[in-house]
Amino acid sequence: MDPSSGDLAKAVDARTPLPGNHSPADTPGGIGSDQMKVQTMKLKASNVNFFYGGFHALHEINLQFSANKITALIGPSGCGKSTFLRSLNRLHETIRGARLEGTIVLDNENILAMNASALRRRVGMVFQRPNPFPKSIFDNIAYGPEINGMGNHQHVAELVEQSLIRAALWEEVKDKLHQSAYGLSGGQQQRLCIARALAVNPEVLLLDEPCSALDPIGTAKIEELLFTLKDQCTIVIVTHNMQQAARVADYTGFFLMGKLIEFDDTKKIYTTPGKKETEDYITGRFG
Amino acid sequence: MRHFDELLEELRAKLLEMSGLVQSAIHKSALSLRERDLSLAESVLKGECRINQLELDIDALATSLLALEQPVAADLRFITAAAKINNNLERIGDLAQNIAERAQALLNEPRFDVRVDISQLADLVESMVQMALDSFVKKDPQQARRVLFSDDGVDALRDSVFAQLIDYMKKNSQAVEYCVDLMFAARSLERIADHATNIAESVLFMTEGVDVRHHAHAH
Which of A1, A9, A271 sits opposite B73 (nearest CB)? Predict the structure, then answer.
């Protein structure tokens, strides 16, 4: 403290409101802090409502995802975060009676008007439990490029190697590429699934609780991997592990009962959240 | 009550105990100076040990809460504010000890009839510390702001005390040692006010999430 604090009183009076007082509803596009507005937006959801038959699961979600950033979606079970994640590459269409209203735009292109396979090539998904195909490690990765006609055998082999390197798995599997993927540990299988998603060069990677079935070492490897991958793609991760969101995400959105309560810089959410519901949830005083 | 809330309550209770000891130390040291009371000065010196021990205990508790509970939001702000307030309280304890030592030294020196506003300075500083700690207990940012506004008054009084003492020394060279002791005591009181200001800043961070240190918000 500077003892000659003559200007302090004036300075205290002139303080600006907390950025966290902006809510998604306050700001167009659902963006919180001002600094986020300068980011390039990769994916934008506007007025998204989602229904499972007669059940209204998501209410007027407005959310933008910055390019080459990691965005975490947090919230209690059943809050709609996974439903929202799945809608970002239209996986909900595989569920009978599910219906999406509103618009979701990928680089100014309405995803609802795109070919679903083409969309899923650009927006990949990694699930909660590792789900390798009952094939060799090599074939797990080669499958995507091959069915998408991405070059000859030599090129596919290069893609397999690159994908495994990008997923930080190459060194561990390079000598057993033709062994069954089921022989890998849980953490390795999950990185294999990430490598499989990366093989078709997605622009956006969606991860639904990717570490929930992994031990701390496997979790740490995936988190480290996310930091390296964000230079190459935009990442959206759903997690129940709030410390994980705090560690890896640039931005965090908090969902509750199908509504986006708050969306802001992760640092802001975890130090000075703008909404009481967010504060109650992340401090464990929810309900 | 959740286990985590019990630990937060323990942290708060320890900090309140330390606050009480530190406030008492300031009061006794200022009184020992004013009343030339050796027993009060000695009591301050004796109490320093407990304050130091509490500082260690609070630091250890705050560190373990951060490491083991991984607090966020208001809990995180409370624990980090508590750790900073803890350090400021310990420094205030040291300064009260310095004042008590000066009071002891003054008792061994010939007395001079120096008319300075040191009692007024001590009263203002005590009230600032009281206000800062009240703002912490009541989680009251408005009260914390009033502490910040008071600091200029303390600086002005210190300057006035210094000027009075320098003036007296110029006229009475045999009173230099006596006046220098009083100057150090006045300086310690003014530094206590600075720590009260730091505590108020921590309360503002804790309650509103704003960082007003070094006029940070103005940039």
Answer: A271
How much is the ipTM here? 0.72
CATH number at residue A110: 3.40.50.300
Span B162-179, pLDDT tens digits? 999 999 999 999 999 999
List, as ranges, residues 7-36 from B with C-beta within 8 Å of A.
none
Residue whose entry in the numeric block shows the structure tokens 């009550």: B1
Domain ranges of chain B: 3-218
Between A196-205, B122-131, B206-215, the lowest mean confidence (pLDDT) is in B206-215
Dist. CA B217–CA B219, nearest whole Å: 6
Task: Say whether A271 and B72 touch across the interface (CB within 8 A).
Answer: yes
CATH code of B3-218, in short, is: 1.20.58.220
Residue A222 falls within a domain, yes or no? Answer: yes
Per-residue pLDDT band for A216 (boundaries 50, 70, 90) equals confident
Residues of A in contact with B149 (CB under 8 A): 8-9, 12
Subunit contact B217:A246, Cβ cutoff 8 A: no
Domain count, chain A: 1
Kindly indicate the confidence band of residue A38, based on its pLDDT and cuts at 50, 70 and 90.
Answer: low
B67 interface with A at CB cutoff 8 Å: no
* CA B24 to each of CA A151, A173, B29, B39, B140: distance values in angstroms, whole numbers, following the listed order: 81, 68, 8, 14, 22
Q: Is residue A196 part of a domain?
A: no
- Give the gap in angstroms from C-alpha A241 to the nearest C-alpha of chain B: 12
Residues 6 or more apart from A265 whose CB is under 8 A from it? A19, A32, A33, A35, A36, A250, A251, A252
